[in-house]
Amino acid sequence: MRISFLGGGNMATALIGGMLERGFGASDIQVVDLQADSCARLASRFGVRAVGAVDDALLDCDVLVLAVKPQQMQVALASLAGRIARPVVVSIAAGLRVADLSRWMGGYRRLVRAMPNTPALIGAGVTGLYADPSVDAAGRAAAERVLAAVGSTVWIGEEAQMDAVTAVSGSGPAYVFHFIEALEAAGASLGFDAATARRLAIDTVLGAAKLAADSDEGPGVLRERVTSKGGTTEAALASMAASGVFDAIVRAVHAAEVRGRELGEQLGKD
Ligand SMILES: NC(=O)C1=CN([C@@H]2O[C@H](COP(=O)(O)OP(=O)(O)OC[C@H]3O[C@@H](n4cnc5c(N)ncnc54)[C@H](OP(=O)(O)O)[C@@H]3O)[C@@H](O)[C@H]2O)C=CC1
Ligand SMILES: O=C(O)[C@@H]1CCC=N1
């Protein structure tokens, strides 16, 4: 299977790195990016073909991943209109709807929306997928094969819910990294050197996530098992509750979902 990427930034890098780790061949992957330094970086790091402009070789692929920023998509797609007939086109852009992507591609409808996340780089991503109803089973399977190489996949029945996937798991790693930053800063403020504070914070999140993934119990039960009556965790959780941490996180995820919808609505007007 030949896979091409339109845009070679953060997310394309994570996907390509993960795909190569999972047995995809570098000679089957191509990238186009406007930045010469991005092309040089991708070519030297991964051994893939990376070019500065769309050409016929790039478009001769089974799956074409659209990995430019939402604001760059319409202009980027103008260079494809009328030039593709075969590939399943997989857009990973936040917010942008199939109907608008299709219009910008001159009516091409073999389109799948995917929302991966950056842990794809180490094969630990999770991706929500939505296919235009006109995409056949082979097209869906080809799109899923690319994303399944870098983590788990979930098909979403309604396109409108892709903004919720974006808010929960697409942006989600940033929330977790932010929590790690805070835990690390707390450790440093309690007197640990930077390396020790970071090790304690990262290994705690890693271990807790693994335990949650492996356990038959939900995270609420696991939290209660840490929380001894009258103990230290209880003091910390009471402080978090007083600061409204839980509700603040829910509000933050809702803000991300709203922003995804806004992007789709604003950019889809053109
Ligand atoms: N980062 C993340 O965690 C996730 C991102 N996404 C989605 O992935 C997409 C890419 O995000 P991200 O990788 O972070 O963005 P980046 O800005 O890192 O990457 C986009 C790259 O595409 C280049 N580019 C812009 N226009 C064109 C064009 N016409 N032809 C070729 N290359 C072009 C950009 O160049 P230049 O720098 O010059 O603009 C840039 O190098 C977005 O739509 C985002 O919504 C989805 C899931 C997670
Ligand atoms: O912040 C963004 O808009 C993109 C989409 C999900 C993660 N990053």
UniProtKB/TrEMBL annotation:
Its EC number is 1.5.1.2. The keyword Zinc does not apply. It comes from the Bacteria. One of its GO terms (molecular function) is pyrroline-5-carboxylate reductase activity. It is found in: Cytoplasm. It catalyses: L-proline + NADP(+) = (S)-1-pyrroline-5-carboxylate + NADPH + 2 H(+); L-proline + NAD(+) = (S)-1-pyrroline-5-carboxylate + NADH + 2 H(+). Residues 2-95 form the Pyrroline-5-carboxylate reductase catalytic N-terminal domain. Pfam families: F420_oxidored (PF03807), P5CR_dimer (PF14748). InterPro entries: 6-PGluconate_DH-like_C_sf (IPR008927), NAD(P)-bd_dom_sf (IPR036291), P5C_Rdtase_cat_N (IPR028939), P5CR_dimer (IPR029036), Pyrroline-COOH_reductase (IPR000304). Belongs to the pyrroline-5-carboxylate reductase family. This is Pyrroline-5-carboxylate reductase. The gene is proC.
